[in-house]
Amino acid sequence: MSCIRSLLVICLLGLFTGLLRAETVLFESGFDNDSDGWEIWSPRPEIEPAANFDATVGRTRPGSLFMGGAGNEANYGSWRILVTRAFKESSEVKFSAWFKTEDVENEMRSIIPRLNWKDENGKQVRPPDYAAGLEKVKGWTKVEYVTDVPAGARQLDIQLGFGFAPEGKVWWDDVSLTQVPGKPVRPVRVATIHHKVRGSSSVQQNLDEYIALIDQAGKDKPDIICLPEGITTVGNPFSYVEVAESIPGGPSTLRLGEAARRNHCYIVAGIYESVGDIVYNTSILLDRQGQLAGTYRKTHLPREEWEKGITPGDDYPVFKTDFGTIGMMICWDVQFPEPATALARQGAELILLPIWGGNETLTKARAIENHVYLVSSTYDMRSFVLNPLGEVLAEATDDCGYAVAEIDLDQQYFQNWIGNMKHRTWKERRPDISLQ
Predict the structure, then answer these.
(1) Of all residues in the chain, what percent are helix, strand and coil, respectively (each to 5)?
(2) How far apart are CA 398 and CA 374, in angstroms?
(3) DSSP labels for 109-129?
(4) 210 and 249: one domain?
(5) Which domain range does residue 157 map to?
(6) Is residue 168 located within the same domain as residue 249?
(7) Residue 48 — very low, low, confident or very high, per pLDDT cuts 50/70/90?
(8) Both 222 and 300 in a single domain?
(9) Are residues 131 and 208 in the same domain?
């Protein structure tokens, strides 16, 4: 009987938790002319998109909200609905909706789902929140955003925006707003190493020194550790080409892989890679089992490197880890905005930067302009962990060769007058304008 009672309690707890998670404030689907509350908005009639209820298109059943550019290059507007209820301050809500498009070149810019919180008099209480795309299923894209109810909010203006696509079309369906028990939290412990090898006579001696620091940092249980650029050549007499090795299978990936497995953490490190006659300045990513999870080849080489025979890379890969999506840059890459932007645009939430030395101001700018966490590991600059506001969360120094910070990849940063830039930044950038 005790087993049956225990099972019943577990089932009831699961049901109660499910009910909490399923407190639906709004769910709209199968749109038609009788769909109440929805209206078309545009700042000026001259730029209002074409809009109607489309009875022929739907995700789960016929009926959706349609908008189209109708050949107007200035088009901008939205479908919107005002939700009024007794929102509890500091409680959490989850918004989601699905859309499909035709002839929209830049969905990040042209598809603009927003939440605009207002007080009882209709005055905005916080800059609008922007939802972001999560997944595509059978031609439809899901956008989602989880946030707290700001102080003073009594109404929520849900806006399904569209603009700047003269020949484009968008259909919206399955729009929902749900009360949730709390915001998601993704704590990640990140570590940076600050150490410059001096007077070394071998690559193995270099690796010995860095692995000793990895093991020290490992006592603080980091999820990922970032080492500097060129760890196999700093402080010893060997050239880039002389220390270049195969990846995987070279001494660095083997020994650092053992350290990653021993400390159950990811490791990022800058080494030199040989592929036939080509040598790259490469950053490796090792997983918790010590296996190679990815590589990045430095794309922006200073003349000092290509004059010594290094070849630049030509892409910006991002990597899925068990805690989130990361990207890597190397040293001189941070001097230019394109590498960090390319990584963030692909979903990187954390950028690891092995760097010999560089511009601290630009390093902070890359975190701020792309709204990402950034970790630098360096010899001649500061080795730190930055949040998306460019604030230093932890710093390793000559006195202490490593530092660890716990970050939350789901934390939202609201700035005065600006709001949360994590998704807003992609709505306002102009990658469509050629720099040539």
Answers:
(1) 20, 35, 40
(2) 20
(3) HHEEEEEEEE-TTS-BSSPPE
(4) yes
(5) 23-180
(6) no
(7) very high
(8) yes
(9) no
In sequence order, which ranges of 288-397 are alpha helices (DSSP H)? 303-306, 337-345, 360-370
- Beta-carbon contacts of 92 under 8 Å, excluding residues fewer than 6 positions away, are 146, 147, 148, 149, 179, 180, 181, 182, 183
Q: What is the mean pLDDT of residues 396-409?
A: 97
Give the span between the Cα atoms of 247 and 271, in whole angstroms.
10
229 is catalytic: yes
Same domain as 199, residue 160: no
Look over the chain and give the mean of its residue pLDDT values, rounded to a whole number: 93
Q: Which of 229, 245, 273, 305 is catalytic?
A: 229
Same-domain check for residues 354 and 262? yes
Is position 72 within any domain? yes
State the DSSP H helix or E strand holding residue 135, giving kind and residue range, or none if neither.
Answer: strand 132-137
Residue 396 located in a structural domain: yes
Both tokens assigned to 288:
């918790």
Distance CA 160, CA 175 (A): 10
pLDDT category at 3 given cuts 50, 70, 90 is very low
Q: Are residues 134 and 83 in the same domain?
A: yes
Residue 298 a catalytic site member: yes
Structure tokens at 78: 């939205």
Whether the upstream peptide bond of residue 388 has omega within 30° of 0, thus cis, is no
pLDDT (tens digit, 9 = 90+) per residue, 58-76?
999 999 999 999 999 999 9
Question: Distances in Å between the alpha carbon of 79 and those of 53, 115, 127, 233, 305?
Answer: 10, 12, 18, 58, 53
Does residue 371 lie within any of the structural domains? yes
Indicate whether this model's pTM tops 0.85. Answer: yes
- Bridge-based pairing state of the strands 92-102 and 140-148: antiparallel
- Reported as a single tens digit per residue, the pLDDT across 11-47 is 433 434 444 454 889 999 999 988 889 999 999 999 9
Q: How many CB atoms lie within 10 A of CB 430?
A: 8
Give the pLDDT confidence of 127-166 residue by residue, as tens digits. 999 998 878 999 999 999 999 999 999 999 999 999 999 9
The secondary structure element, H or E, covering residue 217 is helix 203-218
Query: What CATH number does residue 367 fall under?
Result: 3.60.110.10
Q: What is the domain count for the chain?
A: 2
Which CATH number does the domain housing residue 167 bear?
2.60.120.260
Question: Does 191 share its domain with 165?
Answer: no
